[in-house]
Design brief:
216 residues, alpha/beta, 11 strands, single chain, 8 helices
Length: 216
């Protein structure tokens, strides 16, 4: 396992392209990443996290423009992407091609898509394969003593030990300050629905849409 600085992202990109796992910081918390089209790598994350089957990893796109040929955007999805990408918002979007959906089963159909404004987004722009990511923590209902996803390198190491994952590279970004989730909006249905609140507030979503958003 190598610990690298944020200036050495090419090494992290090469590890992802080689089918390996990488842990990367965001303002929210550390994320474990893999090639979204590599079923073996993605399945190892899901197994290590004890993540329920059918709960997708996030598809981290390098830009909103890069998504246009891959996913179908409703008018509401387009408004949200324009308002909040890059940012702390993920959209559930339908694939344009069933073959693409099948090749990227770990990120779901519809896919959970985001464009990150920080180091994770930089990695998505550098890597030559589609990037999947999820929080560095064991899944499940958090108990009173559960610290939640890792926000420090020390907590990343504790997660790796608990999960048994073979991580090749950790990008050291210091302490992740926000310690909160992305907001998730379902744009697969005819009318957008708020799936999970997070750093992008429900009020901001409603303002961007021009109408009060309903929750799932």
């Amino acid at each position: 396992m190598r610990i690298i600085g944020t200036q050495d992202l090419d090494a992290a990109a090469q590890a992802i392209e080689g089918g390996e796992l990488v842990v990367v910081p965001t303002q929210r918390w550390y994320m474990v990443c893999a090639d979204a089209s590599n079923a073996r790598a993605c399945d190892s994350i899901i197994t290590g996290k004890r993540r329920p089957s059918g709960k997708p990893l996030a598809y981290v796109a390098p830009s909103a423009a890069s998504c246009e040929g891959v996913f179908t955007f409703s008018p509401e999805a387009s408004r949200l992407a324009a308002a909040f990408w890059p940012g702390d918002l993920a959209l559930l979007l339908p694939w344009k091609s069933p073959d693409d959906a099948a090749r990227h089963a770990a990120v779901g159909s519809p896919a959970l898509v985001t464009v990150d404004p920080g180091i994770l987004g930089d990695l998505a722009a550098r890597v030559k394969v589609p990037l999947a990511a999820t929080t560095a923590n064991i899944s499940g209902d958090a108990g009173p003593n559960d610290p939640g996803p890792a926000v420090t390198i020390e907590q990343v190491h504790a997660f790796i030990a608990a999960s048994g994952l073979e991580v090749s590279v950790i990008v050291d970004g210091g302490v992740c300050p926000a310690a909160n989730h992305m907001t998730i909006v379902d744009c697969f249905m005819p009318e957008a629905r708020l799936v999970r609140t997070g750093l992008v507030h429900q009020r901001a979503i409603s303002v961007a849409l021009g109408t009060e958003i309903r929750t799932v």
